Amino acid sequence: QVQLVESGGGLVQAGDSLRLSCAASGFTFSRYVLDWYRQAPGKERELVAHITSAGISDYADSVKGRFTISRDNAENTMYLQMNNLKPEDTAVYFCRAGIYWGQGTQVTVSS
């Protein structure tokens, strides 16, 4: 059974940091391109960060220099380190591996 389970969301103040985790099971994690998406209320889901199986990453302009995506293939886990959070980062954050999606974790940044 394929599962992606996010954790690490919460309520923080502007300027704070959070690290999201996404634990995967049921598929060959190391072979997949991994993504973090987010969806704010009333907005479409958007790609935040992306990392290939070779470890090459890319980011949305809005988070470059603040967010870092990483993966631990030995632990079947991906991460999103989010620094200097802003109120506009408030959203539900989802991890994705190919056709598989997590259930999302809420991040709320107060000003």
Short description:
The protein is mainly beta and 111 residues long.
Could you please describe the fold and organization of this structure?
- By secondary structure, this protein is mostly beta strands.
- It is built from no helices and eleven strands.
- Strands 2, 4, 5, 6, 9, 10 and 11 form a seven-stranded mixed beta sheet that branches. Strands 1-3-8-7 form a four-stranded antiparallel beta sheet, with no helix packed on it.
- The model has no long low-confidence stretch (mean pLDDT 97).
The helix-and-strand class reads mainly beta
Report the principal-axis shape.
globular
Task: Provide the β-strand percentage band.
Answer: over 45%
* Alpha carbon gap, first and last residue: 40 Å
Query: Radius of gyration from the CA trace?
Result: 13 Å
Average pLDDT reading: 97
Largest sheet: 7 strands, mixed
Low-pLDDT regions: none
Q: Provide a count of the helices.
A: 0
Q: Helicity level, as a percent range?
A: under 10%
Count of β-strands: 11
- The helix/strand series, from N terminus to C terminus, equals EEEEEEEEEEE
Structural descriptors:
111 residues, mainly beta, seven-stranded mixed sheet, globular
Task: Tell me the layout of helices and strands.
Blueprint: E1 3-7, E2 10-13, E3 18-25, E4 34-39, E5 46-51, E6 57-59, E7 67-72, E8 77-82, E9 91-97, E10 100-101, E11 105-110
Parallel strand pairs: 2-11
Antiparallel strand pairs: 1-3, 3-8, 4-5, 4-9, 5-6, 7-8, 9-10, 9-11
